[in-house]
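Task: fold both queries, return C-alpha cells.
Query 1:
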Amino acid sequence: MSALPARKRRLQKPAAGRSGRPPREFAGEVDARILDAARRIFLERGLAGASIDEIAALARAGKPSIYARFADKEALFAAVVMRNVAAAIERFGSKVPAGATIDERLVNVGARILHWCLTSNIDLMRVAISEARRFPDLANNVHHMARQRGEEAVGRLLSEVAQSDPLGVVPAFAPEQLATTARFFIDVVVFPLITRALFGDNIESLCAEIEPHVARAVAFFLAACRHSGFN
C-alpha cells in the first residue's frame, strides 16, 4: 500500500470524532439538557452542595460545554430560575384570561399565577433563600430579575384586561402607572400565599385556598384602583 493512501487515512480519522461545541441545530437540545440536569441537582443538593461535575454527568455534556455557556455555578442557577420564569410568562401571555367581568378575569390571572408558583417554582425559591447567606448577590439578583420579569408580564395582562372595561380609564391603569399597579397586584394577590409556602405551609392546603384568597384579594385591589388608592 502506498504512503499517500495511509496519509489520507490518518488525516480523515479525526473527523469522525470531532470535539467542541455541537452544531447550531443541536445547541438548543444541549442547553435544555444542561438546565434540566442543573435544576434537578440544585433541588437535591442545594447550590453549595451541587457540583458542575455531577451536573455534566447527568446532562451527558462535558464541563467545557457548560462553562462555554455559563461562567460559574451561580450563573447556571440564575439561568435555571429565569428559564422557569420565562416559560411561565410565555404560557400566561399566550392565553387571554377568561371571565365575563374584570373581576373574574383578574381572579383567573391571579389563580393561574399562584398555581404555577406553588406547584412549579416554590422549590427553586426555597433554594435561593436557603443559600442567601453564602451567595447574597446571587439571591438578590435572582429575586430582582424574576420580580421584574413578573411585573412586566402582569402589567401587560392588566392592560389587556382593563381595555375591555370602564375601569381602564382610571389613573391606576394609565400606561405610566401600570408598573406600580402590577407591583401592588403581585403584593396583594400573590405574595401572601407564597410567603406562607416559603415558611413551610403545606402546598396542597395552600392550593386549596387559592380561589377564595384570590377572590378576596382582587376585590380589595380593584376597590383601591377605583378610588385611586394605589397610585
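Query 1 returned. Query 2:
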Amino acid sequence: MWAPEIAVERQFSERRATHASVLVPLVQRSEGLTVLLTQRTDHLTDHPGQVSFPGGRAEPEDADAVATALREAEEEIGLASSYIDVIGQMPTYTTGTGFIVTPVVAAVRPDFSLRLDPFEVAEAFEVPLAFLMNPAHHRWHSIEVAGVQREFLSMPWMGVDAAGQPRRYFVWGATAAMLRNLYRFLSA
C-alpha cells in the first residue's frame, strides 16, 4: 500500500483552511519528461519568491480540484488546457500557511507557448523529472524559527534561466514535499 510520506506541515498560521489546487505538469520532451515549475514574484503575500507549481485557491465557480488547477495554470502562465491531459490526483497536502492543496498530475504536449502573469510569476522553467525523482537529490533541512524546530525538504537544481545563464533553483517546502510524494508513489 502506498501513502504519502508528507501530508501535513506544522501549522504556523492562524488562517482558516483554504482549498487550493496545483498542476503538476509533466512535459513530454524528446529527451524525457520534465516538470514545469514557476518562480513566484517577490511581492506576493503567500509564498513570495518561492518555486512552485502553477496553481492557487479554489474559486466557487470551479467544478472540482482539476478545474481549479487548469484555471490557475491558464491564469498564471497561459498554459491552455488544450495541451493538457490530466492523469490523476495525488492526496491533498496541507501547508503550514493553511492551504489544503490537491496536486493534479498531467501530461503536457510540448508545443505550447506560455504567457506569464507578471504580477504572480517571475519565471517559468523545466526540471528533468528523472532529477526530481532521484532520492539522492532530496535533502532534509532542520531550522529553528521562533523557538520551534521546523523541518523541510529541498531539491536544489542547477539549470539555465530564460537568458541562457546558469542558475541555481531552490525547489523546497510544499513543492518539494509534493514531488517527494510523487516519487514515493512511482516507487511503490
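Both queries returned. Flag for query 2: The two ends are 8 Å apart (CA to CA).
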